[in-house]
Amino acid sequence: MKHIKKIKNLMFVAGLLAISGTAQASDSHNIDIPTLASAYTNGSKSYMLAINDTSKSKPSTTVSTLTQPEKFEPPLFSGSNAHKYLGLATLGLVVATAIAPKPSADQSEAEIDSSVHAKLGEATAVFAAATVTTGLIYHWDDFHFEDGFSDPDNLHALLGTVGALAMMYAVSLAPEPHAGAGIAGGAAMGFAIKLTW
Q1: C-alpha–C-alpha distance, residues 197 and 91, integer Å
Q2: Measured between alpha carbons, how far is 170 from 178 in angstroms, rounded to an integer?
Q3: Distance separating alpha carbons of residues 27 and 32, to the nearest angstrom
Q4: pLDDT in tens, 122-175
Q5: Is the pLDDT assigned to residue 120 strictly greater than 90?
Q6: What is the rounded CA–CA span in Å between residue 141 and residue 124?
Q7: H or E element: which one contains 21?
Q8: What helix, strand, coil percent values describe the chain, rounded to 5?
Q9: Residue 22: CA atoms inside 13 Å, Cβ hemisphere, count?
Q10: Alpha-carbon distance 129 to 158, whole Å?
Q11: Phi, psi of 43 (to 5 degrees)
Q12: Which of 2, 25, 42, 139 lies most in the core, judged by the most C-beta atoms within 10 Å?
């Protein structure tokens, strides 16, 4: 009789090992081991498996690994940044042109055209045109006629364009009096930059 109990116990353990092996081999089969274990009873003695249910016995200690979203860093050089840098460079050239020594009226036309003031004025006009061009290319979608000129983007585009045209007009007037057009153009472009800065 003792031998039969030992054989039954060995068969039971072998069955449990076989079930646990197949459960680990394939996640698609969900086998309820406690129900299977409680089904086998021998008289008053029953075989039970301990269930380690962590959800009821103690709080979960899983660590939530929330990652902070990466801070957005725009590229150092893009079309929008080129527009911004050209606009700032244009303002710098406006100031440099204004403080550069003006050629005197008794100088020859060649000397006037090769003066620092004239060269800075020409560079300012070129940079102003490049600023407006890159603004039109890279910020075309920001300009909407239906928003009117009270919209900062529309006013920025209008003042920047008017400023660039006034600076180019000032260069075309030189050596005739042109300071008013140049200062007005620089002020318009400076105000346009201030609107969006």
Answers
A1: 14
A2: 5
A3: 13
A4: 999 999 999 999 999 999 888 888 888 889 999 999 999 999 999 999 999 988
A5: yes
A6: 26
A7: helix 2-25
A8: 65, 0, 30
A9: 11
A10: 13
A11: 65, -130
A12: 139
The larger pLDDT score, comparing residue 104 to residue 119, is at 119
Exposed / middle / buried, residue 191 (Cβ in 10 Å: 0-12, 13-18, 19+)? middle
For residue 40, the tally of other CB atoms under 10 A from its CB is 15
Lowest mean pLDDT segment, chosen from 23-32, 53-62, 112-121, 186-195: 23-32
Cα gap 124→116, rounded to integer Å:
12
Q: For residues 91 and 167, what is the distance between their CA atoms, to the nearest angstrom?
A: 11
For the stretch 38-71, pLDDT in tens is: 555 545 555 555 666 555 555 555 666 677 888 8
CA distances in angstroms from 118 to 78, 112, 126, listed in the order given: 31, 7, 12
Output the six-digit token pair for 39.
């089904």
> CA nearest 126: which of 183, 161, 164, 91?
164
d(CA 16, CA 12): 6
